[in-house]
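Notes for week 9. Today we move from apo structures to complexes. The key idea is that a small molecule is not decoration. When we ask for a structure prediction with flavin-adenine dinucleotide present, the ligand SMILES becomes part of the input, just like the chain. The input block below holds both the sequence and the ligand string. Read it once before you look at the output, and try to guess where the molecule might sit.
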Amino acid sequence: MQYPVIIAGAGPGGLVLALALHQRGIPVRMFEAVHELKPLGVGINLLPHSVRVLHDLGLEEGLASLAIQTAELRYVNKFGQLIWAEPRGMAAGYNYPQYSIHRGELQMLLYETAQTRLGADAIQSGCALADWTDEADGIRVHLRDADGAMHEAQGCCLIAADGIHSTARRKLYPDEGPPLYSGRILWRAVSEGAPFLGGRTMIMAGHQHQKFVCYPISHAHAQRGRSLINWIAELNVPDWTPPPQDWRNEVSKERFAAEFATWRFGWLDVPTLIDTTSAIYEYPMVDRDPLPAWTHGHMTLLGDAAHPMYPIGSNGASQAILDAELLAAQLAEQEDIAQALANYEAARRPATAKIVLMNRQNGPEQVMQMAEERAPDGFAHIHDVIAQAELEEIAQRYKQAAGFSLQQVNRG
Ligand SMILES: Cc1cc2nc3c(=O)[nH]c(=O)nc-3n(C[C@H](O)[C@H](O)[C@H](O)COP(=O)(O)OP(=O)(O)OC[C@H]3O[C@@H](n4cnc5c(N)ncnc54)[C@H](O)[C@@H]3O)c2cc1C
């Protein structure tokens, strides 16, 4: 290739793409809007299909030193009664683990690895994608630095991995407007505490109007016999003014804690977990409608810029990583860049659109809503309320659609 691939956005999606292209000998230049990358965010999950990609990039040790290998997922009702439990990652027979990890630590692992492998000059921070001009043999990218000065970079193509508020997407679809508010608000935090349910279980409690999700995310804490517990309290409050879509929007627990005051399950004490937290971040649950096209000339979208989805089913970061892997493989295999971008979009746009839409119907968590509707006062046994076959079918259908059934992952 005469010119490098230009990537806008050093989130998990953009960074994995940079590493995957570099591994294939394809030159990369990366531009990130923020001046200094900081380990922002709270917990996220990496499902086995995306962990396979990260292992192939040589990140196995780095991930294992930071994250928890999640061994189980449990859905319970608002009284803590078990709806569904399933093993996860290697405990479920996958060849790769499922990781629960701090998003900021994942981003810093990817960023530092990319700096070492690509060279610090390949990644320029404080330089935001502003616009581009498509040309016969590539693309001219217009960038704005922190002082407002404009710069240009020449590339063979531009990959916009610039997140849910993507500048590129806004240029392509100026009438789309802001991300769509679901009526639900998420309060996210991490608390240190005693391990629950063996220290490698992820739980989701409640139903679609009130939910509490938590899981441990730190290998270092586990080594000391403790858990760094990522948690998300969620309320359906369609009448509230939606809060700003800012990952650093810190609020007080008074906004929501009273609603969870009775959620003490014996094996998990939700009010205490909320009380022992120093910083709580409020974020509206938002997504966007699937797009009719991602690729326009020598540019395309990737990750949250292309397909932001509700954080249901633990798929956001994993799907960005799968995008990156497939796009890098196509750019390496195809002589013709237009063909590579077309093949990437043909595979990834329908696959991710399906997940966006399934997540709007609560994805695999729909069993929690079914349990609430059929037995709002609780149940003696879940099979009195939902048959085992129905529970299994819902779990399996989602895994299949999102590409992480056991067969899909282990087949490679
Ligand atoms: C600060 C932050 C905190 C987050 N915290 C969480 C969390 O706690 N839990 C969770 O589930 N998800 C979180 N997310 C979202 C999560 O990272 C994504 O859903 C997922 O990992 C897909 O990643 P991505 O690389 O596509 O997008 P993102 O992770 O959103 O990365 C996009 C990157 O592009 C950069 N960027 C934006 N505009 C431009 C531009 N014009 N030019 C160049 N660069 C640009 C951004 O600064 C960012 O680094 C967070 C995202 C951000 C940006």
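Residues 8-14, 31-34, 40-42, 44, 103, 128-129, 161-164, 167, 188, 247, 303-304, 311, 316-317, 320 surround flavin-adenine dinucleotide (CB under 6 Å).
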